[in-house]
Design goal:
By secondary structure, this protein is mainly α. Among the domains are: 156 residues, no CATH class; 115 residues, no CATH class; 256 residues, Alpha Horseshoe (Leucine-rich Repeat Variant), CATH 1.25.10; 135 residues, no CATH class; 118 residues, no CATH class. Helix content is 57%, strand content 1%. The chain is built from 61 helices and seven strands. A three-stranded mixed sheet has the order 5-7-6, with no helix packed on it. Strand 1 and strand 2 form a beta hairpin. Helix 36 packs antiparallel against helix 37. The relative contact order is 0.05. This is Condensin-2 complex subunit D3.
């Protein structure tokens, strides 16, 4: 009677029969409102009371006595209609579905649903027709309807934004998804309307209702089998899967076969127990049940929210989400441990789908890889090896995300112990168990991937292999670079890295939870030399992330002694500190620091560190300067201790003094960069008195050179200190002169820095010592320069007049001494015979240095003496005949000089210093310098003349401007040193705008791009792109058209190529002729590659107006030179570099760059297509209005003159009209013959492509990757037509897109004669010999000799067919494997076949097409 009393609050007897029938007739989808008299005052308590009265009938704790009536009997005896009870409960359940339902309605809905599910669990519910499919599913969904979802949804929207998008939510533009989009919009509108406020107390009560409902479902599953209700079972799985991350769990979850339901308090624990119950045979086939459960667990592991419809959405990887993922992985492991063998096939499917549904986000990939590795531990050896084989094929999928994820999995697997095979393992799977396979084939195998993202990640993983605690991975990497290691070849079945096309087009909504099969053919092979060369090549990869990863890989190899230290390899790291990319510079600095820390004793590493870090102090990026400053401070400045505390056992101090020693000897050229660091440190007050005293303590020890180097840098900015030891060192230097040149210069520099703190007597004594040194003229040149500099600093007075008086006195004395000596040598007839070359050089050098400080003491006589030394040793008559020296020739009054080259080179520098102080000398001697550049054959002289003239250009810009062509002519000097020096100095002048792009300067500059020395060509490219183009972005486009005329030496145009040039200069820079065509086009391509799309578009129009139109109007004649220019113009218009990047890029292919998911990929593809269409329409309009009329006229003119340029014109048209295939007649309505010819040529071209496609389709194996390196093909490449209905097969994209028609072939003209004939032969007939005359459709099973015979095949578990079908031919037989397709090599001559009275059906079909 307690049960009947508990039912009274529902007032079932007052409910009308009509209302109940209406509810059942509508199948519980909607209900009419109940009578107002039926009201629930305290529903929560009353529902709970009714629940407590019913629970004993479910758990059998009551009613076990046969005399006790069942609940159904009780209902019948008391006139309670079960039908009415179910209808009223459904009313409350449906009342909580609305977004506007209040808290009490939601709580009532949860409790009513719990009561209904509890009734289903009571024996006899089926007989009494309590179960209803729709109501059951509605009750299961009550949790998602009643629990507030707005906050969760808003949290989950953010991760959907792709890093490549514009931040807006994209929608797929497909008709079949319109309904889904409408539903999504409706959901969003309803979500915005939800304004119900739920207090924490309300949420707590609702949570209790959810627990009650879940426990009711668990009681139901223990009693009520769902074997015959697969949809209901699926809904149960879905509900439990959503509850696995409903709330955080304190501690770890425990999973058991039998647990007390009432003892569980956590919703995730209840949910996993429900999932465990659903795996039992009572709820369906064991494999089917496992598949349902694992399919839903899949999204928890992937950290995705799978809603009822639509594709999953990513969840933020918060701590709660990560904990739920770990619990899901633990649960799967528990199921596998319990069920053993039956769960393994489904576990494999789960692993495959984790891989296949991975998104391109680093955090998700990392956690996904960890989950895969943990689940793989439950696989036996055979299953593990089989999955690794599948994973290897997966690692060569066309989608970038998959290849990246495969690398992540391999890295996590390398952290696990290596597996050993057992007796049950098949022999062909043994090679997949060792870590060697993961390192060699999966990690290093992606070293040449087509995607830069994958290439870079593979190299990063290779470096990380060396950091793993396991020695297996390190040993495997060493085998890669071992010179004695054998070549590793994996013979695997499949193509060049593309998964079946059906698989690439699956979405999360359509891909079944079944086995995924992959078919691949790729041979992974590598050798030690190729491996290292490839790594060095990757350091200069066009992509930034690849260069960074390559640096990390090389650093790791050097750190762990996998490869030997060498200057070449270390130079690669040093050079990258000057990389154009900021991140690469920082990475290179960090790599050098790591390498120095691992090899502090290596002299080569120390030099490389200095060469990389010290020059970074003058980098244009302030962050790079800061990083370099940090490295220098950490390695050098902070390690300076007093000599008394120094110990050679201290590696850090020893390293510091070794580096300073190198800066004093082998790396002296870095001193100016090193000084920049001290300038910064001085502003930061880094030089304390203790630091200076520590340095001084080393000046008399073994590290004196390094100590004086540091003192010379810090003395000018340090506080006052004891100068006694400095003066004592100076006295020792004067007396003994045992110091090295570098140390002497440093001591002189310190003396100059502290001179203002010395008294007058000390200054005078030091001045006398320096003058005594200088008058002897026996010091090295470096010491002379430092001595003069210190002398000037010692003579600095309070007024400029006094300072100049001091300089005139002392420097003037040195000038007089030099004049006397040089007069004796030059004016004496026998002076040159007993010439002391070293002494003359020192006098000339001293004269040049001191003349800068006392220009008034430089008389006319000394100038004439120096210029007489410069007179070239050439025939006077030859010099007079030179047209370049039409101006004054001041040096011809002297007879030819017999001075050595070194003396003349220093005379140039000295005379240049005279000119810097006297403008009239500059005007007088500039012609002499120009004469030396042309006539002199001595390298040192020409080199110094270039330096002098560039320095004079900064001082006297207008005066030197007319001689810039003479300087630029040195860009074609026979000596690489002069070419490189000229290139560098001209770049500096152009940057500072001392020189403008006037005359032929631009064209001479860009000819360095084709310099025979690759280093000079590379330097020119760097200067143009990274230094000059940034300053003048339109520089290339402004000069491009004139390049065509200039490089072809065409001077008949009214505007272009009209600047003055001498015949020698014209011949020196000429690139005219067929022999230089490749060089010219290399320049054109370089310029076009650095154009913007707007510049490409404009240059096409300008070429048409300024070149093609001129030939049409008769302004330019079609003679031999004109034909060459016109043909080259059409060649330029045919270049792929001139096409707009927005049109030439492959839109929507997927696989080139990582995609977020199918929806984002489709949105991006739609945007690219729309952009391409808009730009194409503009280009089409310009082509019709500007190009076509001129093209038609030109064609008519060329036909009349029978010009060979007609072939170039037709080739250009054929390439261009491929984009407008169906509009040929419309474009060329004015020339029907031309339209017909183009139609015919395009048809022939398409026929050739079709033939290639048929030949490729008839071969089982894919094309081998070139160069022996694995290359992943695009999704459209190497596809086969497969018998499946999941997706439309993609057509084969031919690998050769050249024009195969002999008359119009662009590539034909570039081939040698022997290969050209072979190309023509292939255009007339198919070079294949078929073993049979006719093959039935679908039975083409012939294969090339080098292609493998098998496929990678999988077996779908529990199904008759796989989700992804294999590509076996339907008509193949075992005996057909002997049929071989013979391909002819282009190097071999075409054999003459035996004449048979039979014609091939292929040729018959082709003949009919041609006749039509």
């Amino acid at each position: 009677m307690e049960l009947i009393h508990a039912l009274e609050f529902l007032k079932l007897k007052e409910v009308s029969v009509g209302w109940v029938d209406a509810v059942w007739d509508f199948e519980f989808t909607e209900t009419e409102p109940l009578d107002a008299a039926i009201a629930i005052k305290n529903g929560s308590v009353e529902f709970q009371t009714l629940y407590n009265r019913l629970i004993p009938y479910v758990t059998d704790t009551e009613g076990t006595d046969a005399a006790s009536p069942s609940v159904w009997t009780v209902f019948g005896d008391n006139g309670i209609s079960v039908k009415s009870l179910v209808a009223v409960l459904s009313y409350f359940v449906l009342g909580g579905k609305s977004h506007t339902a209040n808290a009490q309605q939601r709580i009532n809905a949860l409790q009513a649903a719990s009561l209904y599910l509890l009734l289903l669990g009571i024996p006899g519910s089926v007989v009494n027709k309590v179960f209803h499919q729709i109501l059951f599913d509605t009750c299961l969904n009550t949790v998602s309807h009643c629990w507030p979802q707005s906050s969760v949804k808003k949290r989950k929207k953010d991760p959907l934004k792709s890093s490549q998008g514009d931040g807006k939510r994209s929608k797929p533009h497909r008709k079949d998804n319109d309904r889904d989009n409408d539903e999504m919009e409706i959901d969003e509108d309803e979500e915005q309307e939800e304004e119900v406020h739920l207090s924490p107390q309300d949420l707590l009560k609702m949570r209790e209702g959810v627990v009650l409902l879940v426990k009711s479902v668990l009681h139901l599953l223990l009693k009520f089998p769902l074997k015959d209700e697969p949809l209901s079972a699926e809904n149960c799985v879905q509900m439990f899967a959503k509850l696995t991350d409903f709330e955080p769990v304190i501690g770890e979850l425990t999973f058991g076969a039998r647990q007390e339901i009432d003892g569980m308090k956590s919703l995730p624990q209840l949910a996993y127990y429900g999932l465990w119950l659903l795996c039992s045979p009572s709820h369906g086939d064991e494999k089917g049940s496992l598949s349902r459960v694992f399919h839903r667990i899949l999204y928890v592991i992937l950290m995705m929210d799978k809603r009822d419809s639509g594709q999953p959405s990513l969840m933020m990887p918060t701590q709660a989400v990560l904990a739920a993922r770990d619990q899901a992985v633990h649960f799967v492991c528990h199921i596998v441990d319990e069920l053993k063998e039956p769960a393994l096939p489904v576990l494999r499917i789960l692993l495959q789908h984790i891989c296949f549904r991975m998104v391109d986000k680093t955090d998700y990939r990392m956690h996904g890889a960890q989950a895969v590795a943990r689940l793989l531990t439950k696989m036996p050896c055979a299953g593990y090896a089989s999955f690794i084989k599948w994973l290897f094929d997966y690692s060569r999928h066309a989608k970038v995300t998959y290849r990246m994820f495969a690398l992540d999995i391999a890295m996590v697997l390398l952290e696990q112990p290596e597996r050993e095979g057992d007796e049950n393992l098949a022999p062909e799977l043994v090679s997949f168990l060792p870590h060697k396979f993961l390192v060699h084939n999966m990690v290093f195998g992606r070293r040449s991937d087509t995607s830069p993202t994958v290439r870079g990640h593979a190299l990063t993983c290779l470096a990380q292999c060396l950091e793993l605690p396991s020695m297996n991975a390190t040993r495997c990497v060493k085998e890669l670079f071992s010179t004695t290691s054998a070549q590793t070849v994996l013979e695997s079945d499949g193509s060049n890295g593309s998964l079946n096309s059906q698989t690439t087009q699956k979405t999360f909504k359509t891909l079944p939870f079944k086995t995924i099969e992959i078919t691949n053919n790729e041979n992974a092979s590598f050798e030690s030399k190729e491996t290292m060369a490839l790594l060095k090549c990757r350091v200069s990869d066009p992509k930034t992330n690849v260069r960074k990863s390559a640096l990390q890989a090389i650093t790791g190899l050097l750190k762990h002694n996998v490869i030997m230290l060498s200057e070449v390899t270390l130079a690669v790291l040093s050079e990258r500190t000057r990389d154009p990319a900021l991140s690469v510079k920082k990475k290179a600095l960090q790599c050098l620091m790591d390498l120095l820390a691992s090899h502090p004793e290596s002299n080569m590493v120390q030099k490389a560190w200095l060469r990389g870090v010290v020059p970074a102090m003058v980098d244009t990026e302030s962050s790079v300067q800061e990083k370099a400053l940090e490295c220098l401070e950490q390695t050098i400045l902070s390690q300076v201790k007093s000599h008394s505390s120094y110990s050679y056992r201290d590696a850090h101090q020893t390293l510091t003094w070794d580096l300073l020693g190198l800066l004093c000897n082998d790396c002296q050229d870095l001193s100016r960069y090193f000084s920049r660091a001290f300038t910064v440190w001085s502003k930061q007050n880094k030089f304390t008195e203790a630091f200076i005293n520590n340095l001084i303590s080393h000046t008399e020890a073994e590290h004196a050179a390094g100590a004086w180097l540091l003192l010379s840098k810090v003395a000018s900015s340090c506080p006052l200190f004891d100068y006694g030891k400095i003066l004592d060192a100076w006295d020792d230097l004067v007396r003994s002169k045992n110091f090295t040149v570098t140390t002497s210069c440093h001591i002189l520099c310190v003396i100059g820095d502290i001179c203002e703190h010395l008294n007058e007597d000390t200054k005078c004594r030091i001045v006398e010592d320096i003058m005594t040194w200088l008058k002897i003229f026996d010091m090295p040149l470096e010491v002379i320069s430092a001595s003069v500099e210190t002398l000037c600093r010692l003579g600095k007075a309070e007024t400029i007049v006094d300072t100049q008086k001091f300089l005139n006195e002392h420097c003037g004395e040195l000038v007089s001494l030099c004049e006397v000596y040089l007069s004796g040598v030059i004016l004496n007839e026998n002076g040159a015979e007993n010439l002391n070359e070293d002494l003359v050089v020192k006098h000339l050098y001293t004269l040049g240095v001191v003349s800068l400080h006392c220009p008034s003491k430089v008389g006319k006589r000394i100038v004439i003496l120096v210029q007489s030394v410069l007179t070239s040793n050439v025939d006077v008559h030859t010099a007079e005949a030179s047209e370049e020296l039409a101006g004054s020739q001041p040096l011809t009054q002297f007879k030819p000089s017999s001075m050595p080259s070194t003396v003349r080179a220093h005379a140039v520098v000295t005379l240049g210093k005279f000119c810097l102080q006297h403008e009239e000398l500059t005007r007088k001697y500039l012609p002499a310098f120009a004469r030396e550049l042309e006539m002199c054959r001595e390298l040192a002289v020409r080199s110094n003349v270039v330096v002098v003239m560039c320095d004079l250009c900064m001082r006297y810009t207008n005066m030197v401007d007319r001689y810039v062509p003479n300087v630029s002519a040195c860009l074609r000097d026979k000596e690489p040193l002069i070419r490189k020096q000229t290139l560098t100095m001209l770049t500096n002048l152009l940057q500072e705008e001392f020189v403008k792009w006037k005359g032929s300067l631009f064209f001479r500059f860009v000819t360095a791009l084709v310099d025979p020395d690759p280093s000079i060509a590379s330097l020119c490219e760097y200067c143009l792109v990274h230094q000059l183009l940034k300053k003048n972005p339109v520089m290339f486009s402004q000069h491009f058209i004139e390049c065509i005329f200039h490089f072809n030496s065409y001077e008949k145009h009214n505007t272009y190529n009209k600047f003055p040039q001498t015949d020698s200069e014209r011949a020196k820079f000429s690139l005219k002729g067929a022999q230089n065509k490749e060089k010219r086009f290399r320049i054109y391509r370089f310029l076009l590659e650095n154009f913007t799309d707007a510049q490409r578009f404009n240059i096409t129009i300008k070429i048409c107006q300024n070149i093609l139109a001129c030939f049409v109007d008769g302004e330019l004649l079609l003679d031999a030179d004109g034909a060459a220019v016109l043909g080259e113009t059409f060649g330029i218009l045919s270049l792929k570099e001139i096409k707009l990047s927005a049109l030439s890029g492959a839109a929507g292919l997927g696989g080139d760059e990582p995609q977020e998911d199918e929806q984002m990929a489709m949105a991006k593809a739609v945007m690219e297509v729309a952009q391409k269409k808009a730009i194409s329409q503009v280009q089409k309009k310009v082509f019709i209005e500007s190009m076509i009329p001129i093209i038609i006229h030109l064609k008519s003119i060329l036909e009349q003159k029978r010009s060979p340029v007609l072939k170039d014109l037709m080739g250009y048209l054929q390439l261009t009209m491929q984009d407008y295939r169906g509009e040929v007649k419309e474009f060329f309505a004015a020339d029907e013959q031309l339209a017909a010819e183009l139609e015919y040529n395009l048809k022939m071209y398409e026929k050739e492509l079709e033939t290639e496609a048929q030949m490729a389709h008839g071969s089982i194996g894919g094309e081998a990757s070139s160069g022996g390196l694995p290359v992943v093909g695009s999704p459209a490449a190497d596809k086969r037509f497969l018998p499946t209905g999941f997706a439309t097969p993609q057509p084969v994209v031919p690998s050769h897109r050249g024009l195969l028609t002999p008359r119009l072939s662009q590539s034909d003209r570039r081939l040698p004669p022997q290969q050209r004939s072979w190309v023509r032969a292939t255009s007339d007939r198919v070079c294949t010999t078929l073993s049979g005359s006719v093959k039935p459709k679908g039975a083409i099973n012939d294969r090339a000799i080098s292609t493998p015979q098998g496929n990678v095949n999988e077996v779908t578990f529990g199904e008759g067919v796989s989700a992804i079908f294999s590509d076996r031919g339907t008509g193949s037989k075992m005996g057909d494997e002997g049929c071989v397709l013979h391909l002819m090599s282009p190097e071999q001559q075409t054999p003459v076949p035996k004449q048979w009275n039979v014609q091939s059906p292929l040729n018959q079909k082709r003949s009919r097409r041609i006749q039509k």
